[in-house]
Amino acid sequence: MCKNLMCDDYTFSGVAVRNSSIFFLGLTGEVILLSMLLLHASFSEDARQSVLEQKAALVKNLRLTDLCLFTEARYTRHLSQADLNTAFQDHPLSLEHFPSGSFTQPYLDNKTP
Asked: What is the mean pLDDT of residues 35-64?
C-alpha cells in the first residue's frame, strides 16, 4: 500500500503490480493476437485459392471491366476505358476539378480485346 500521493502501483489480490507490468502484459497479448491473425491468414489463403480462381474465370467469361472506385467523373469511374486527354476535355489548360482525379494514375496498359 502506498503511503504518499505519488503511488503508481495497483494491487491485485494483495500483490502490487506496476504500470509497466500491465503495459507489457497488454503488449504481449496484442503480439499473440497479431501472430494468430497472421497464421490464420496464411492457412486460409490456400483454401480460398480455388474460389479466387473461379471468380477470375467468371470475370473473364463475362468480360467485366475494372472496379468502379469513384463516382464523380467518367474518367475516374473506369480507369481502363478512359483516354489520357479526358481530364482536359473542357479546355486543354483546365485544372483537375474532381478530387478523385488526384488519387488515381492513368491506365497506360490499354489493350484491345
From this structure: 89
